[in-house]
Structure formats: structure tokens, C-alpha cells
Amino acid sequence: KRLILIGPPGSGKGTQSPVIKDEYCLCHLATGDMLRAAVAAKTPLGIKAKEAMDKGELVSDDLVVGIIDEALKKPSCQKGFILDGFPRTVVQAEKLDEMLQNRGTKVDKVLNFAIDDAILEERITGRWIHPASGRSYHTKFAPPKVPGIDDVTGEPLIQRKDDTAAVLKSRLESFHRQTEPVIDYYAKKNMVVNLPAEKPPQTVTSEVKKALS
Ligand code: AP5
Ligand code: ZN
């Protein structure tokens, strides 16, 4: 399966991805995770991306298209993939079509994590992540067994620098202005499945499985 996950910050893309990935043996490509790794490692890419990310703005289309083009070459992505957080602009969607066409393949479905903005601040400000794996927790909705510690590795959890109420506002603004048109782009091609992303994680998971069966 070749899937795109679209939704505002905190809508549950990163939470559902590992479940979908394991169920269908896909690779999980999250541009946000890849960019954060580049920022942490201070690579040239990371240095270019940091300023926009800290402000909650999108990094340039060329940068993320380059990352995805590279990542899609991985052997683990040949059977199928989950794109989490990409494409986020219509230009990125067009470039993706082109990249996949060149590889003789295409996207099967677009999962739209539909949710009201009002719910997202609590989700975002309560999130803790394990940066190496991308696993995320929530102080109220998905607490780790030991506060501040990753269940699997025992390593410390951190909060994302952009997970503040103030930066969330700008991330939501980018979503409505630049990413919602991407949903329309795929809706015109009848590829979009709407998920009730405000429901508990297990409910969202079963809706995903229904949509993909
Ligand atoms: P990115 O990392 O993609 O962030 P985002 O889109 O803002 O999405 P989030 O990771 O915040 O949300 P999520 O949907 O994954 O939520 P999660 O499942 O963790 O991008 C970061 C930045 O990188 C961008 O701002 C931009 O600068 C740059 N960037 C990335 N891609 C780009 C691109 N293509 N083009 C240009 N720039 C790009 O859940 C959130 C919390 O809620 C967790 O704590 C979780 O435990 C909890 N939770 C999840 N589901 C539920 C539920 N059903 N009920 C209750 N709690 C839940
Ligand atoms: Zn995410």
C-alpha cells in the first residue's frame, strides 16, 4: 500500500503510523522526524530548516521534495510506504505525482485526519517524544509507564521545541492556508478517506483498518 497521512498538528498521524506500518509491512517516512534529526545533527539541511520549523512555518518545497525523493529509494519502501506530513503544499503533491510516475507507481489512498482545531492545544502541549524512534506519548492520553522515560528503550523523553501554544497557532495557520488545498487536490481524484481523528486512538486505528481493507 502507498498511503498519505494528512492532518493538522496533533491530529494523530505519528501515533497511527507505527500501527499501520506493522499491519501492512510499509516504511514510515515522516518529513518532520527526518527534519528534526537533521536539525539535531546540525547537517546543512538541518541548518537550513531550523528557522522555519522553530517558527511553525513550512520549510521550502525543494528541501522536503529532495528528502522524500532520496528516502523512497530505500529497499524497505519498495513494497509500500506511509508518507506522514508530506505532501503539505500543492507543489509538493505535484512533485510527488511526478516522482512516483517516474518509478511506475502511484499513491493508493489519502487518510485525512479530520479534527477540530480546539482539541489540538491540549494534545500538543502534553506530548512527549522519544526522538530516536519517533514514538510519542501524552501526559494524559498516553502516559509512559515511568514519567519522562521511553517504555521500550528506557531512554529519556523530550518535548518538541515547536510544541508550545504560540507556535501551534502558526502551525495551524500554515495547515489551513497551505495544506488544506492538498486535501482538495486528492479529493478531486477520489482518493481521500476521512477519519474521525477526535476519537480515542483505538477507534481511529479500527477506522484506518476498515478504510484499507
Ligand atoms: P511534523 O513533525 O510533521 O509536525 P505536524 O504536522 O505539526 O504534526 P505533529 O507531529 O505535531 O502531529 P501528529 O499528527 O503526528 O500527532 P501525534 O500522533 O504525535 O512537522 C514539523 C515541522 O517540520 C513543520 O512545522 C514544518 O516546519 C516542517 N515540515 C515537516 N514536513 C514538511 C513538509 N512536507 N513541507 C514543509 N515543511 C515540513 O499526536 C499528538 C499528541 O496527541 C501525542 O501526545 C499523542 O499521544 C496524542 N494523541 C494522538 N492521537 C490521540 C487520540 N486519538 N486521542 C488522544 N490523544 C491522542
Ligand atoms: Zn507527527
UniProtKB/TrEMBL annotation:
<feature type="domain" description="Adenylate kinase active site lid">
    <location>
        <begin position="127"/>
        <end position="162"/>
    </location>
</feature>
<dbReference type="GO" id="GO:0004017">
    <property type="term" value="F:AMP kinase activity"/>
</dbReference>
<comment type="similarity">
    <text>Belongs to the adenylate kinase family.</text>
</comment>
<comment type="subunit">
    <text>Monomer.</text>
</comment>
<dbReference type="Pfam" id="PF00406">
    <property type="entry name" value="ADK"/>
</dbReference>
<dbReference type="InterPro" id="IPR006259">
    <property type="entry name" value="Adenyl_kin_sub"/>
</dbReference>
<keyword id="KW-0418">Kinase</keyword>
<dbReference type="GO" id="GO:0005524">
    <property type="term" value="F:ATP binding"/>
</dbReference>
<dbReference type="InterPro" id="IPR033690">
    <property type="entry name" value="Adenylat_kinase_CS"/>
</dbReference>
<keyword id="KW-0808">Transferase</keyword>
<dbReference type="Pfam" id="PF05191">
    <property type="entry name" value="ADK_lid"/>
</dbReference>
<protein>
    <recommendedName>
        <fullName>adenylate kinase</fullName>
        <ecNumber>2.7.4.3</ecNumber>
    </recommendedName>
</protein>
<dbReference type="InterPro" id="IPR027417">
    <property type="entry name" value="P-loop_NTPase"/>
</dbReference>
<dbReference type="InterPro" id="IPR000850">
    <property type="entry name" value="Adenylat/UMP-CMP_kin"/>
</dbReference>
<comment type="function">
    <text>Catalyzes the reversible transfer of the terminal phosphate group between ATP and AMP. Plays an important role in cellular energy homeostasis and in adenine nucleotide metabolism.</text>
</comment>
<keyword id="KW-0547">Nucleotide-binding</keyword>
<dbReference type="InterPro" id="IPR007862">
    <property type="entry name" value="Adenylate_kinase_lid-dom"/>
</dbReference>
